[in-house]
Amino acid sequence: MKSLELRIPPLVLLLVFGIAVGATAAYVPPVSGLMVSGKWLAVILMLSGVGVAWGGVVSFKRAQTTVNPMTPDASSALVTSGVYRVTRNPMYLGFLLMLLAWSCWLASGAGIMLSVGFAWYLTQFQIKPEERMLEKVFPDSYPQYLQQVRRWL
After folding, report:
1. What's the rounded Cα separation, in Å, for the pair 95 and 86?
2. How far, in Å, CA of 67 to CA of 53, rounded?
3. DSSP annotation string for 66-126
4. Per-residue pLDDT tens for 53-71?
């Protein structure tokens, strides 16, 4: 399965899963509980997702390091401030929150399950390979950071 590592840009993956959520919502009956409160929850999740992801991008830009997820070995700085004090992957967490928001907006239980699949795929084929590379690039500081901050939340 190493052939899948760092192959699909996370933004593309978000779009693919977002389309899948929309497609399943057209064929799978909506979750009645989400039909009532889903819109408000969706707005809250979407705003949170955009904010968390944007916070990650801003932190990377301030540190003048790459935001390209396909080349983690090109990182010039280990960012541990800002939103990175709470989560090691704020951009991916933001994407997950956005996908959950879309699922709630559509009242799609299947969409929520697809969101879990999205998180699993990202963890296995994007985050873990990134972690291995960052440990090589920052051998003194990255292992300590791994112990201080959780992968997702």
Report:
1. 16
2. 11
3. ---TT-GGG--S---SGGGGT-S-HHHHHHHHHHHHHHHHTT-HHHHHHHHHHHHHHIIII
4. 999 999 999 999 999 999 9
